[in-house]
Design goal:
The complex is a heterodimer. Chain A contains no helices and eleven strands. By secondary structure, chain A is mainly beta. In chain A, strands 2, 4, 5, 6, 9, 10 and 11 form a seven-stranded mixed sheet that branches. In chain A, strand 4 and strand 5 form a beta hairpin. Chain A is globular, with a radius of gyration of 13 Å. Chain B is an all-beta fold. In chain B, strand 7 and strand 8 form a beta hairpin. The relative contact order of chain B is 0.33. Classes of the chains: A mainly beta, B mainly beta. Chains A and B meet through strand 5, strand 9 and strand 10 of A and strand 5 of B.
Chain lengths: 112, 111
């Protein structure tokens, strides 16, 4: 199985400041179809996860443009340009290139 | 409006069985993949299983041979049959497809 490793595991950010989360996969997530099957989810406290980014860098409908995803192959990054109070929660990366999918451990983001 | 509603969770003894259901509305469960994801208390997300539109199914090693994913097309419902349950299967179980997630149903395995 592909192992997804996120760093850091927790982040405390001042509102208005940027934040960055890294996700590294143990194998390349680039498929022969040209797509890279890397997703980012946010689970706000007490809620179900919500999709933020699909296929590395595509923001899902309604996701603020302060969220951006980048990377390729095995190294990926989620950036929040200016953190807001509503961004608190746990962020997960996930791969679905293999028949068995895997999530990263999660990165807990809190506001200072 | 798209909605996924899980049901069937509860308290079960180790070694017991449970069947979870996920009723979908606003889209067709058979038109693409559907998955189950679980979250143990205070822990992260763990992918459990997926069923594709063609019927192919795949499982995490932790549940392979014990869990079975299926769907009923006319009822537009996804299922997860869970057998030989263990304490470590205790979790909130979500059905999901991409941007659509249910609210989850809690399964507690304990004597």
């Amino acid at each position: 199985d592909i192992v997804m490793t996120q760093t850091p595991l927790s982040l405390s950010v001042t509102p208005g400041q940027p934040a960055s989360i890294s996700c590294k996969s143990s194998q390349s997530l680039l498929h022969s179809d040209g797509k890279t099957y890397l997703y980012w989810y946010l689970q706000k406290p007490g809620q179900s996860p919500q999709l933020l980014i699909y296929e590395v860098s595509n923001r899902f409908s309604g996701v603020p443009d302060r969220f951006s995803g980048s990377g390729s192959g095995t190294d990926f990054t989620l950036k929040i340009s200016r953190v807001e109070a509503e961004d608190v929660g746990v962020y997960y990366c996930m791969q679905s290139i293999q028949l068995t999918w895997t999530f990263g451990q999660g990165t807990k983001v809190e506001i200072k | 409006e798209v909605q996924l509603v899980e049901s069937g969770g509860g308290l079960v003894q180790p070694g017991g069985s449970l069947r979870l259901s996920c009723a979908a509305s606003g889209f067709t469960v058979s038109s693409n993949y559907m998955s189950w994801v679980r979250q143990a208390p205070g822990k992260g997300l763990e992918w459990v299983s997926v069923i594709y539109s063609g019927g192919s199914t795949y499982y995490a090693d932790s549940v392979k041979g014990r869990f079975t994913i299926s769907r009923h097309n006319s009822k537009n419902t996804l299922y997860l049959q869970m057998n030989s349950l263990r304490a470590e299967d205790t979790a909130v179980y979500y059905c999901a497809r991409g941007q659509w997630w249910g609210q989850g149903t809690l399964v507690t395995v304990s004597s």
